[in-house]
Amino acid sequence: MISTKKLFILFFSSFLCATTSSWCKDGLQIKGKLRILKPTTLQVNDLNGTLILSCELQPNKEFATEQKLIQPDIYTLRIGKTEEKIYFENHEVNIIGYYDETNPEQSSLSFKGIDSFLTLQEYLPADKDPDTATVSLPANAQLSPNMVSALAYLANVNDYYSNKKLLDMISDDERNSLSARWLVERVKILSHQIIGAECPDFTFTNVNDQKVNLKDFRGKIVVLDFCASWCGPCRKEMRSMLKIYNELKADDLEFISVSLDDSQAKWKKMLDEEKLPWVMLWDKTGFPKSNEAPSAIQTAYGFYTIPFLVVIDKEGKLIARNVRGEQVREAILKARN
């Protein structure tokens, strides 16, 4: 099933209309006239969720929000139950067309006054996989610092070097927008996910309710496995890892499985069933219900699905990430050479 939010993105991008922006000296104002089936609302929120502008929409009647000076940045435009992230500046924005809240895919909207947002669309990566996509700007690209951080936010790729290059285009005193602050934190997090980077530390509970820290295993090669009892592929991968463990086990090697179960009882039941010989830990935070709100450990290691395995060298630095089966064996042997 396609979500209502996704449908809004589809029709929104299909009916954008680029025209010359009109400058509004008093800030951002959204106005227009929509053919709608029933009254609804229009809202603009910043990336923190703070309400910036709003107004009621009536069928076939003109509408206009107040005018408000804003920090040019990415904002969430909500019309009824649908939403879209848009780069807004202190311009007047006009929206016309037909909007069907019940069936957003039937809607047809045209926007005027969002030229900078349309420019950003040209630089978004064609690759939609955040783990493989990159962002690059041509030499003649002329983007303001706010547009650069907005581009990074819209692209939302996991490539450290793309994000770092964009951040380096923004001087320290120009990192005032919410997307710029997001980019600063994004680069910091991604810097721990590149090969050779020191892996983020953590402290979780073992089967005896003792706190165990990743740094406790310095001096050993660590295979770190994020899993859950309800995850069939996770348990299959554990059994695959057991063969590698038995073949390569030595004083310089440690396997650690971190369960993201929301129940300690379910986790311990899995331990009883699998009877694995290595360190078993539990992150009581559990596995989030939405990728939009990852847990702290997911954010630190950059994963949204499980099983997810990384291999760490004796100095606590990343050797390999998102590996399976024989890739784990190869990474261990490489670390021993």
Distance between the termini: 49 Å
Count of DSSP strands: 16
CATH architecture of the largest domain: 3-Layer(aba) Sandwich
**Unreliably modeled segments:** 1-10, 13-23
Percentage of residues in strands: 25-35%
How are the strands of the largest sheet arranged?
11-10-14-13-12-15-16
Mean pLDDT across every amino acid position: 90
CATH superfamily of the largest domain: Glutaredoxin
Task: Spell out the key features of this protein.
AhpC/TSA; Immunoglobulin-like; Glutaredoxin; 29% helix; 3 domains; Thioredoxin_domain; redox-active center; 337 residues; 9 helices; signal; five-stranded mixed beta sheet; cytochrome c-type biogenesis; alpha+beta
Give the gist of this structure.
It holds the Pfam family AhpC-TSA. The protein is of the alpha+beta class. It is 29% helix and 26% strand.
